[in-house]
Amino acid sequence: MSHAVVQEGTITPPSEPSDADRRKRARSKRAHHSAVVTASQILVLVAFLALWELSSGRWIDGFFISKPSLIFETWWKWVLSGELWYHAQSTLATAGLGFVVGCVAALMVGYILGGAERLAEVFEPFITAIYSLPKIALIPLLVMWVGVGTPLQITISALVTFFLMFYNTFFGIQDVNRALVDSVRIMGASRLTIALRVRIPSALVWVVAGLKIAVPQALIATVVGEMLASNRGLGHLVASNAAQFNTAGTFAALFSLLIVGLLVDRFVRVITRRAMVWRKV
User: Fold this and answer.
1) By mean pLDDT, which of 66-75, 120-129, 215-224, 272-281 is the weakest?
2) How far apart are CA 248 and CA 71, in angstroms?
3) Are 171 and 206 spatial neighbours (Cβ–Cβ below 8 Å)?
4) Nearest-CA neighbor of 193 among 185, 204, 203?
């Protein structure tokens, strides 16, 4: 605690808090704010579930909304039997493979066209035209090309990922400072050195922004494919329970998708934060 000091008629002003004190206070404020937000979120969730449980069968027909207790009971049976892990593993593996394929292709094409203006002028309108097509409308054609099941889901996921990542990579490479590239080239740097030391690091912000959008969209595309033409995966779990008018099972499958989506979002946040640490240095 800082105190003013009085010496022979003079007043010494209180000392300024140290940097350590400021950091400690800032951490304490953040911790308090985080605790308040978390408590509020839990309170809202509990109130929502309680209202849902009470309204089912009283004010709203239970056939349409089921009950949280029945939904959790169904979900827990899937967990114990291993059925949930089987479907979740299939969805994540398929979405992950489709994302990797689409992401690698988008990074390569985006880098090439972003650094070659004439090629970009030729191919960019065609890519934009294909991008404007609803991907769901392509599914009947893709079924004829690759069949149903896992190949279809990987293809849809890769297509969605490709276009999202392509544009971010393309504009990121175009946004690189031309003067910086020319300066490095004059110093004798090779194309590989320019790519690794200048273009890619400069475009990383755009690529990371694309990742935040492409990863969940790849998961959504996979689930859509599973719902339309598959015999496994969380999307199939939703569709099969809905086809049997099993409301509790449908909500349990949707709850599983919610958990997977939330975990994927948090994972992407951690990865993107670590990828952008160098900007704070």
Assistant:
1) 272-281
2) 5
3) yes
4) 185
| CATH fold of 68-280 | MetI-like fold (1.10.3720)
Q: Measure CA 237 to chain center.
A: 22
With beta carbons less than 8 A apart as the criterion, state whether 152 and 146 touch: yes
Q: Residue 170: which of 219, 130, 209, 217 has the closest Cα?
A: 209
Instruction: pLDDT band for 15, please (50, 70, 90 cuts).
Output: low
Backbone angles phi, psi at 20, to 5 degrees: -65, -40
Distance CA 80, CA 46 (A): 25
Q: Which two tokens stand for residue 12?
A: 């010494």
* Whole-structure pTM value: 0.79
The domain spans of the chain are: 1-55, 68-280
Instruction: Please check whether residue 114 is in contact with residue 172, taking contact to mean a CB–CB distance below 8 angstroms.
Output: yes
